[in-house]
Amino acid sequence: MLYPERLQGRVGRLIVDIMAVLWTAAWAIAGYQVYQVVMALQVVADGITSTGHTFNSWIQAFRSATPHNIPGLSTVLGDLANTLQRSGGDPLVRNGMEAHDRIHQLATVLGILVALIPILAVTGSYLVWRVRDVHELSAARAFVRYAERSGRVEEANAVLAHRAVTMLPFGQLMRASADPVGDLTEGRHEALAAAMLRHTGMQPLRAHERR
Length: 211
Description:
Blueprint: H1 7-39, H2 42-65, H3 73-150, H4 153-167, H5 170-176, H6 180-186, H7 190-200
Helix pairs in contact: 1-3, 2-3, 4-7
């Protein structure tokens, strides 16, 4: 049973359910926005990689323009080109690609943390309570339905009245009865039982004839 029978309890829980969904959606969007902001830094990493590729293309053009038939000079120029590529172009390409991957990892971690912490703290706690609430509502409904079908409404009211005295806050208890102890002693259970059922979101017990 997801929602209470009484309109007030049903509307109240429905509003809180909607608020929990909105809270979850808002923080999921916030996490995605953080992910997008951090991912924008990949432009810098891609720029470094592009610079390295450009530098390597210049070195390759230098190699192509270097004469290959001059003994000694061709070897020196070739070694110079290789050194420039190893110390300039290749490290830029490698560092740019590593930065690109790390920015993606950082964006993913930050996005998940920004969304997950408030969602778990609030929505997770609410879901735990809501599951227990649904179980309690289902159990209360089963209790009421069985009492009505079996014709044991008076006995069920007595059980509910005792639960009301032991479980309800004093404000609700005294609104239900000016003399709760006297009502229990003298067998006036209806008002206390109805208050207990209202507290759980159920309608008062209705007597049915046994078949």
